Amino acid sequence: MYRCAIYDEPLLNELECCIPQEKKKPVAELPTTLQRTTPLHIPNLEEIQVVRHFLRLSQMNYGIDTGMYPLGSCTMKYNPKICEDISRWESFAAVHPNQDESTVQGSLQIMYELEQMLCEITGMNTFTLQPAAGAQGEFTGLLLTRAYHHFNGQNHRTDVILPDTAHGTNPASATMAGYTVTEIPSTQEGTVDLSVLEKTLSEKTACFMLTNPNTLGIFESDICEIQKLVHNAGSLLYYDGANMNAIMGKARPGDMGFDIVHINLHKTFSTPHGGGGPGAGPVGVTKKLERFLPVPRVIHSKNNYALDYNYMDSIGKIKGFYGNFSVLLKAYIYILMMGQDGLTEASEIAVLNANYMKKKLVDSKKYDLPYKEHRTHEFVLSCERLHQEKGIRALDVAKRLLDYGLHPPTIYFPMIVKEALMIEPTESESKTSLDNYIDALLKIADEDVQTVLNAPTNTKVRRLDEALAVKNPTFTWKMKQNTFTTEEKQTCCESAGRHH
Hints:
Elements: H1 9-17, H2 47-59, H3 81-87, H4 90-93, H5 105-122, E1 126-128, H6 134-151, E2 159-163, H7 169-176, E3 180-184, H8 194-200, E4 205-211, H9 223-232, E5 236-241, H10 253-256, E6 260-263, H11 265-268, E7 283-285, E8 297-301, E9 304-308, H12 325-363, E10 379-382, H13 384-390, H14 394-403, E11 410-411, E12 420-423, H15 431-446, H16 449-453, H17 466-471, E13 476-477, E14 482-483, H18 486-495
């Protein structure tokens, strides 16, 4: 039998003799205090055992490469492998951020051209690529808001207004930026209530934060009236670009009257989410806010690209170096590959897929659709009837989907929908894939109640109490096969900088 080479010492010694002397690298001697005093316990396994072990672990993972990932508002699109391959080219991956600008002209050109592309797509004047996530983009936009009002001698503008459909990061970012947050209710159609907005706007309002389409998947058709109300009050209009995948090539935030825009490149432009990071949340602004953008900014003159720090009113740096360059690069490749027509088609198919699923599920009479019927790229169903009639909640439906080998949608968001299932299929999915997901949801609605309540039953780990797990984590050390004591937990949490 083949032995696993990493554990086969004689084989390693034999291979070592084959390495030319000039290729061998000297090994630094470890200080005695850092050297082991006991032999390292490494199991002597057959190669096939090791391969099967790690392959089995990989098969337990779920991602967009293995199945549908319809997380509403997260836009989990397929990531083209050509973008991944190019980002690993040595000319990109081996670049050091402290290199002289003359040696990274290609990278600077890509950043400059990406800014121009985003300006064209959104209708904004200028962009910064620094923010490393959508939430950091929001925070940056709110710092720009504060700088703008300060420059104009209006420090009394201390309030931010947002609708009850807003992403949770909106109020968090506003609070971090030092603002007081006011939430306004939506109409019975799930859109901004113009009369309430008008009454809430005041001389204290710094900006109104809005996602369009909103998190219900409904386009704010009153956006022209909204921007007039906001601007007449001396406030700014902020665009949360999380749902740009619905309108590429169809509508632009700049044309709607927005002053500040952030875009989630890791959503709209098919770059990996990376388990929550790294991402990229570039921020675009109109001309009146350009002077406040973070530095450095990429400039182009006489066939030369450079980083310019000479902006006296800038809010300064908000990210180390120049943002997550590999994410920016992948988005740049994706946009070049798709072109204007391709990006428009992506939005069209995303909207088509969402409305196809919505109609099939709503027509079944097993799930309800609160608010306005027509949706864009995503829709939010309610499991309230299932809950009232059978005691089955949205969480139970989500857990049961795991038994069908499917990733659940976002649940319980936005909070204005009771027992919410928030579904966004994106343009990545085929009709077969959509039908498979629809069939699973319809079967779950008709299944025996206890089957659904006890789900999942065929996953490696059964149903967890996520809230309890966060509040009272249990740490185990597998080598000892025992549980940490309370004191050990406390020490572990403190050393990790967390509260226990």
